[in-house]
């Protein structure tokens, strides 16, 4: 189970451009359950403080705490090595991107998906027209989102547009050359 919490101060929201707002600080608690189980012999809970780094344009784990229930096994080197920190970080980031702002109805990165409307074929149709300015704008948006989610950006763009990886890589290069992708 993943629980996400974050400060509700305006300073905790970062506008990274192109109508994309993310959280600066994420506090996450991940508890082993039937779906998330990194050590079948013992249960544990991981607490992470995750901070956005403007300089490196990525989320980073700044604090990590591992707890074992009192009546269970202690925290040992074996348990520490079994915790898949990078996988948990990705899961927490994805959950945070979908987290609704307290008191509001829209997830934090809703504007990107609102622009696509309810048309799941919009990006593949754009791909058929080739690297037009609007297509490259979406390439830049998806590349940025992939970087935030810690997934391979070219593959993410390739999957979204349903084009070969080579084509996606070329479009990323074009988006950079034309100033639409600056990270």
Brief summary:
With 183 residues, the protein is an alpha+beta fold. It has helices at residues 77-82, 85-98, 110-116, 122-129, 133-149, 153-161, 165-177, and strands at 2-5, 13-15, 21-23, 25-31, 45-53, 58-67.
Compressed to H and E, one letter per element, the order equals: EEEEEEHHHHHHH
Radius of gyration: 19 Å
Major sheet: 4 strands, antiparallel
Count of individual helical segments: 7
Supply the helix-strand structural class.
alpha+beta
> Strand portion, in percent?
15-25%
Q: What general form does the structure show?
A: elongated
Given as residue ranges, the uncertain stretches (5+ residues, pLDDT < 50) are none
Spatial ordering of strands, largest sheet: 1-4-5-6
What oligomerization state is this entry in? single chain
Termini gap: 33 Å
Mean pLDDT: 85
Helical content class: 40-55%
| Total E-strand runs | 6
How does this structure look, described?
With 183 residues, this protein is of the alpha+beta class. It contains seven helices and six strands; from the N terminus they run E-E-E-E-E-E-H-H-H-H-H-H-H. The strands form two sheets. It has a four-stranded antiparallel beta sheet with strand order 1-4-5-6, with helices on one face. The chain has a two-stranded antiparallel ribbon with strand order 2-3. The radius of gyration is 19 Å and the shape is elongated. The two termini are 33 Å apart.
